[in-house]
Amino acid sequence: xxxxxxxxxxxxxxxxxxxxxxxxxxxxxxxxxxxxxxxxxxxxxxxxxxxxxxxxxxxxxxxxxxxxxxxxxxxxxxxxxxxxxxxxxxxxxxxxxxxxxxxxxxxxxxxxxxxxxxxxxxxxxxxxxxxxxxxxxxxxxxxxxxxxxxxxxxxxxxxxxxxxxxxxxxxxxxxxxxxxxxxxxxxxxxxxxxxxxxxxxxxxxxxxxxxxxxxxxxxxxxxxxxxxxxxxxxxxxxxxxxxxxxxxxxxxxxxxxxxxxxxxxxxxxxxxxxxxxxxxxxxxxxxxxxxxxxxxxxxxxxxxxxxxxx
Length: 310
Known about the structure:
Blueprint: H1 3-16, H2 19-26, H3 30-44, E1 49-51, E2 56-58, H4 60-81, H5 85-88, E3 92-98, H6 100-117, E4 121-127, H7 134-137, E5 141-146, E6 154-167, H8 169-175, E7 189-192, E8 200-203, E9 207-210, E10 215-217, H9 220-228, E11 233-237, H10 238-247, E12 251-252, E13 261-268, H11 276-289
Parallel strand pairs: 3-4, 3-5, 7-10, 7-11
Antiparallel strand pairs: 1-2, 5-13, 6-11, 6-12, 6-13, 8-9
Helix pairs in contact: 1-2, 1-3, 1-4, 2-3
């Protein structure tokens, strides 16, 4: 058995979600792909994949082995890349998928400097809040905002993003300030419908509040505008609201309760053959954004006087 080849087949099967797709991408037969994984399992004396008629599932042992195989193949690719000048020079078209609000507010400001630093790269940026299939749709890189990502994704953490509850001074002057999470149920709340649990706001690991309000939308910018107009309380990521919080246009609420933490991740299809253009863009974003990121500067400011809005 060629163990490196078998490990590569195993990783590709997990990434593709099926033996058929993995075999097509590797230009081998489905039977050969299945044989490679079977030989790995036989050699290890444990099952790596649970197979059903519809999909594949990693076993606990398979998840650990998959992560190690990824790293081994990545190290091998890096070793090959170290003697290839082409791999060191970012060039060609870089297809990126990015969330709409983050792309408009932060990514657009970074692109000119990146293009100036890497003139042989052409950027093709698709802004959408849906989660694209990087392999099927031909993306080199996707930016995703999440609390955590599935183990099967290859990703680098770029920056921290907090979720913050806030409202305009005008709204709080008219309706009062909620002093604990359950009090939100008595307020007009602005609800983001694209979240996993629309209308459920989380405080810490085990406290959640179901809220209702006058406006629901799948676009955070629309809800931000409504909050600035005094229409209600918003609960959105700090990258969207940080400037308003720092300027006092919005007032952070419930700061004594733990904020939900998200992160900005750069996700790519595989560590294998990671191109210089992908590596350069991710490194560039990490260097330019930093952690803590500029949109969380408001967190260093003193809490506002509650009495002003009660």
